[in-house]
Design goal:
Strand order of the largest sheet: 7-17-16-9-14-13-12
Oligomer: single chain
Shape: globular
Helix content: 25-40%
Structural class: alpha+beta
Strand content: 15-25%
Number of strands: 22
């Protein structure tokens, strides 16, 4: 099992685990190992990766068989990371050359159908009615050539200095690397993405008897760790009834965030007893925690049907939990008590009560300030927040800080909502303003509190490219993949040609994903678009519509940035028919950058700048948007959003207004970025240096950047996009 977990280390850290002692299993001379290591490095370059000098040296000292084994597993992992583990065929074999006009192409498909022995009558009948179903045409939407034929028709890629080069570094023993990764994920101060939760689940089972993090502040992470501890017979980490509910969800492979309902399985008797005993001990220690049951009343009812608490009279307090869920026992919730006080216009009483739950107080600050009628009440709200700030998690402190910053705008702006699954919608913001005096006072208090918790490194080395990356306050605000940044981040786009790609493989039903690019003007009005209904425009070309993917399918859009009309380019993936993003066997989106003279296949892994999984709730995916600056330069702003869309036949033409409104709200919202934390850390005694990409410091530093430099002095602390969550203080 431990070898099967090796890809986790590479994906999360870009370190390659290495044996620390004699291989034992390997044969061959060290010289042969050096040759194999150089060959490994050369193959990696073809997919946009390379070995660091230190890693190349370490591998060269290993036996050949060991190097070959490491190379095979590492190559499989990085190829999947970049999307090169599948064949990316395009409908038009010469793409982006010789893409026809849309109407000309459709007419050629009709002509082919009329010449086909099987379809001329049905096609002719459709032509006479004036309406032709493109899907009925034998040459429409289905590959007319093999992947090998496409490769033969394309020129080789010409290497360029701007091609992506991701450096792999040497790691330690695999067991030690897995333990370190487990401690980092379990001890994360921010919620993890769905993929990282799966990784934590696997690591927790493997590391259950080893070192444990000092604290597991995120309750969802604690549920996954408790699942492993329950299986191993270790003591459970539970102090609320909701902890027990999350554990029950984990045991049924359900949603530990408690957002989606879980279909509980019937647990074994030992598991049933463990859950009921845990509930009993929590309530026995603090009967007031029965009030938490009402928040998830329906989930408790369903769980009670599986646990049969009436069969275990030795745990009477556990029975009380389900009695509250059924409404047989009264236990007023904390939120209900707050609402009662506010309904009675007792704002000061509500504030006093909320001080006993600092996190809830912080989340209610905006409402409390808008509800306050007098200066005394506004001062009381601010004073309470200042008093309890040290007890609030760093993630919540920063989230409220970002919220207050954006509340400086006038009313009438758009208000954006994004749930944990990336579903987004907008409404007019009709809330009254928050007083500027109170807002500024709170912002100053939150900055002081954050500064107090941040480390004060002696030397801070900053990659300028990371400064506009949004703080990862939740793993739900990003997606799994390569080169992916948190929602709201800004990153430079450098290259003459921008090429999007989407790949999907259906599970059971015919599934048709459509890649489109919407070009908007500076006022968010539509300029033009590229899609299967508009194959060519001044800006570029579409690779052609694929309408089924039993063996996998790809679509591409090629854009010449210098020719783009408008201020925004919005790539989107529309589900026209079939399975959703969470139903297909596999689906991902990405973009490449290259120079005009490079040529190459439609998909070239070393030109891929970003590849992200498409796993969200909705029928329209909006991974990111490209923005043109006043100087003509382009930047990407990361979205990771999904629109509900229609059950079928989603098209770029039909969602233009919705996308434009959503985009305006996102683009005009200001996220807290790494720049904010760097500013708070740049106090007395800290020397801040912007990294030029080449200079190696002469002593240990704290480095913050998008990717790790090839060489840093021993003892340096390294924070990159892979572990950016480590910047968020507890």
């Amino acid at each position: 099992m431990i070898d099967r977990l090796e890809p986790l280390v590479i994906r999360h850290t870009f370190r390659v685990p290495l044996p620390t002692g004699p291989s034992g299993e390997a044969t061959g001379s060290v010289g042969e190992g050096a040759i194999a290591a150089r060959q490994f490095d050369a193959v990696l370059l073809s997919v946009g990766f390379k070995l660091s000098a230190d890693l190349l040296e370490r591998l060269s000292g290993l036996p050949e068989e060991t190097v070959v084994r490491i190379a095979g597993r590492t190559l499989r992992t990085v190829r999947e990371l970049v999307g090169d583990h599948v064949q990316h065929n395009a409908y038009f074999i010469d793409f982006p050359a010789n893409v026809p006009d849309t109407l000309d192409f459709w007419m050629s498909c009709i002509a082919d159908a009329l010449r086909d022995e099987k379809t001329p009558a049905s096609t002719l009948k459709q032509v006479r009615t004036g309406v032709v179903n493109l899907l009925s045409l034998p040459t429409y939407g289905r590959y007319q050539h093999t992947y090998a034929e496409l490769l033969a028709a394309q020129d080789e890629l010409i290497a360029a200095a701007g091609d992506r080069l991701t450096v792999l570094h040497p790691g330690g023993d695999l067991a030690d690397e897995l333990t370190a990764l487990y401690l980092a994920l379990a001890g994360s101060t921010t919620p993890l993405s769905e993929e990282h939760q799966g990784d934590l689940r696997a690591l927790a089972e493997r590391c259950v008897d080893g070192p444990q993090p000092e604290a597991i502040p995120v309750r969802e992470n604690r549920a996954l760790v408790n699942q492993a501890r329950l299986k191993a017979g270790s003591e459970l980490l539970l102090d609320t009834v909701t902890d027990v509910l999350r554990l029950a969800c984990a045991l049924s492979d359900g949603d530990v965030t408690l957002v989606e309902p879980t279909r509980f399985r019937s647990p074994s008797r030992p598991v049933r007893r463990a859950l009921l005993a845990a509930l009993d001990s929590v309530i026995a220690a603090s009967p007031a925690k029965l009030a938490d049951v009402a928040v998830h009343r329906e989930a408790w009812k369903r769980l009670g049907e599986r646990l049969h608490p009436h069969e275990y009279p030795q745990w009477p307090h556990a029975g009380e939990v389900f009695a509250v869920a059924r409404g047989e026992l009264k236990a007023p919730s904390f939120d209900g008590r707050v609402e009662e006080l506010l309904a009675e216009s007792d704002l000061l009483g509500a504030v006093r009560l909320l001080k006993s739950a600092p996190g809830k107080l912080f989340r209610a600050l905006d409402r409390l300030l808008r509800t306050a009628l007098t200066q005394e009440e506004r001062d009381a709200v601010v004073a309470a927040a200042e008093q309890v700030a040290p007890e609030v998690s760093g993630r919540v402190v920063l989230s409220v800080r970002e919220h207050l910053h954006n509340r400086a705008r006038d009313t009438g702006e758009l208000r954006i909502f994004v749930n944990r699954r990336g579903r987004a919608w907008v409404t007019d913001d009709e809330r009254s303003v928050v007083g500027p005096v109170e807002r500024e006072r709170l912002i100053a208090a939150l900055d002081d509190e954050t500064r107090r918790r941040l480390p004060c490194p002696e030397r801070l080395l900053i990659d300028p490219d990371v400064l506009d990356v949004a703080l990862p306050l939740s793993g739900k605000a990003t997606a799994a993949g390569l080169g992916v940044l948190p929602r709201g981040s800004l990153s430079a786009v450098e290259g003459e040609l921008l090429r999007f790609f989407v790949y999907w493989k259906e599970t059971e039903r015919r599934t048709d994903f459509d890649l489109s690019a919407l070009m908007l003007n500076a006022d968010y009005s539509t300029n033009t678009w590229l899609s299967y209904t508009s194959l060519t425009e001044v800006e570029g070309e579409h690779s052609g519509d694929i309408v089924e993917a039993p063996d996998g399918a790809s679509e591409f859009i090629n854009l010449r940035l210098g020719a783009v009309r408008g201020a925004f380019v919005v790539p989107q993936v529309n589900i026209f028919a079939g399975e959703g993003f969470e139903e297909v066997e596999e689906s991902f989106f990405g973009f490449m950058l290259r120079e005009d003279e490079q040529q190459g296949r439609p998909f070239e892994p070393r030109t891929v700048r970003m590849k992200s999984e498409l796993r969200g709730a909705g029928r329209v995916a909006l991974p990111l948007v490209f923005l043109r600056g006043e100087d003509g330069s382009w930047r990407a702003k990361w979205l990771h959003l999904y629109l509900k869309g229609s059950p079928s036949a989603n098209r770029v033409e039909e969602n233009r207004v919705t996308v434009a409104n959503l985009l305006r709200g996102i683009v005009e919202r200001e996220q807290l970025t790494v720049r904010h934390l760097v500013g708070l850390m740049s106090g007395a005694g800290t020397t801040v240096t912007l990294w030029d990409g080449e200079t190696v410091p002469d002593g240990p530093v704290t480095f913050i950047g998008l990717r790790r430099p090839d060489e840093l002095p021993a003892g340096s602390r390294i924070v990159t996009s892979e572990n950016l969550r480590d910047l968020i203080p507890a």
